[in-house]
Amino acid sequence: MATREKPLKIGLLTSGGDAPGMNAAIRAITLAAAHHKLTCYGFHHGYNGLINQDYGILAPDNVTNIIHQGGTILKSARCPEMMTQTGIKQAVSCLIKENIDALIVIGGDGSFNGMLAIQDHWQGKLIGLPGTIDNDLDGTDFTIGFSTAINTAINAIDKIRDTADAFDRVFVVELMGRHSGHIAFNVGVACAAEQIISFENFDPLAQEAKLAEIIADIEQQKLNKAHSYLIVLAENLWPGGAHSLGEALKQQGNIDVGICVLGHIQRGGSPVAKDRILATKLGVAAIEAIITKKSGIMIGECESKITHTPLTKTIQHQKMVNDDLVSIHEDIFKIGNH
Ligand code: ATP
């Protein structure tokens, strides 16, 4: 008589910065797991959930009414213990003790490094889902959360533009993105920013030249009787950030500058349709990958097709902001305030 195979046990966690759409992915994974009769466990607070053996079963009832919620019902966290061999071994011990067959991690490049560390000590299957607002993972056109984050930033900046216009004022708005310019450049273009200072078009060594260029440009705009002047700045790029840039414009150009560091508002809020749908497709594909015995990969979507990319290749930061977009802003639209 043929022996019946034990149902696979899946572990799931969300790690690193939370991203809108993580809940939609959790829901999709849970429902697809239930469909294929797999057991799904949700580990809480990122990798801390493995280290502290803090988890609960994820059944369809647990994921009702979450697709529209930002954040993550599993909670997320940074987990410094994972940067140590002791922490990695504790995480692996938990997976072995709980007889987990496959672990799905939704997160960014740091979280994927965590999976690679686990991979050295564990035989189970490892699947990554790109969940970060930064869009800085290779192997997927978009990460879960990016579309919502840029829409949130655009909505906020449209409001800033109104008040800047009322006072004919210069504003510097600093956006998130860690070390990638996807958020800054896309939002800058979508908000018709007069200046976008991002990783694609700015070298911090050329700071003084850029300052002089901006001051001259603002003077020219005044002569043209243009209104507000918006500078979108990527975080971790200008030495000292938006406040330092604003201060330099004031000191060197006698310009009154409003400053806004948009910050965590970019992480929150209900995910837009694009993130909900992407998260749903990737979540279901993650379970299908486990069933077909794949491991060490990230599930992504390129040109509307599901893709499998080795985890090691997803964290190389090769994916740049689209050249056409950079060229539109830098070359074609450099004709004054519009
Ligand atoms: P985001 O960039 O969107 O915030 P992320 O996943 O890149 O997401 P990180 O804070 O870089 O966020 O990483 C999340 C967690 O992954 C860390 O707190 C740590 O637990 C784990 N991690 C990061 N790098 C490593 C590494 N080199 N080895 C083991 N674990 C790591």
Automatic annotation (TrEMBL):
**Primary localisation category:** cytoplasm
One Gene Ontology biological process: fructose 6-phosphate metabolic process
> What does the UniProt keyword field contain?
ATP-binding, Cytoplasm, Glycolysis, Kinase, Magnesium, Metal-binding, Nucleotide-binding, Transferase
Q: What is the E.C. number?
A: 2.7.1.11
Q: Which residues form the Phosphofructokinase domain?
A: 9-290
Cofactor dependence: Mg(2+)
Q: Where in the cell is it found?
A: Cytoplasm
> What is the enzyme's main class?
transferase
In Gene Ontology terms, what is one molecular function of this protein? 6-phosphofructokinase activity
Q: Which reaction does it catalyse?
A: beta-D-fructose 6-phosphate + ATP = beta-D-fructose 1,6-bisphosphate + ADP + H(+)
Instruction: Give an example GO cellular component term for this record.
Output: 6-phosphofructokinase complex
Q: Which InterPro entries match?
A: ATP_PFK, ATP_PFK_prok-type, Phosphofructokinase_dom, PKF_sf
**Which Pfam family is an annotated match for this chain, by its short name?**
PFK
Biological pathway: Carbohydrate degradation; glycolysis; D-glyceraldehyde 3-phosphate and glycerone phosphate from D-glucose: step 3/4
Which SUPFAM superfamilies does the protein's record reference?
A: Phosphofructokinase
Q: Which family does the UniProt entry place this protein in?
A: Belongs to the phosphofructokinase type A (PFKA) family.
* PANTHER family in alphabetical order: ATP-DEPENDENT 6-PHOSPHOFRUCTOKINASE, PHOSPHOFRUCTOKINASE
Name of the protein this chain belongs to? 6-phosphofructokinase
Q: Which lineage do the record's taxonomy fields give for this organism? A: Bacteria, Pseudomonadati, Pseudomonadota, Gammaproteobacteria, Alteromonadales
